[in-house]
Amino acid sequence: MSSGKIKSSTVAATSAIQELVGIDSSKLRNNQVDFGYTSGISGMETARNTANTMLQAISDFSSAVLAQANKFPGLAQKIEKRDIEAAKRWEK
User: Fold this and answer.
1) CA distance readout (Å), 11 to 2, 3, 6, 7, 15
2) Phi-psi group of 75: left, alpha or beta (phi > 0 → left; psi -120 to 50 → alpha; rest → beta)
3) Count of CB atoms within 10 A of residue 13's CB?
4) Taking all residues of the chain, what is their mean pLDDT, rounded to a whole number?
5) pLDDT beyond 60 at 47
6) Which of 34, 4, 1 is nearest to 20 (CA)?
7) Dihedral sign, CA of 62, 67, 68, 74?
8) N or C: which end of the chain has fewer CB within 10 A?
9) Which helix (H) or strand (E) holds 31?
């Protein structure tokens, strides 16, 4: 993914988020790590609980990033429209 300024190009905005749009994080939701034997081994139980908490946090974060990324094409359209209107005012 390239970095740079937000441009009033819907093509640039769409291509910038293309990698993210293909990710379906809903399948990752509520995944759990389960070890075969943890009973009585506090370190293993702690590791399982920590891993499960991290998986949930990563899933939530991925969903939030995707939700924000999906806003970029709409934002680019608004900026593009504003730029076109500003250009028309300068033509007069």
Assistant:
1) 13, 15, 12, 10, 6
2) alpha
3) 22
4) 76
5) yes
6) 1
7) positive
8) C
9) none
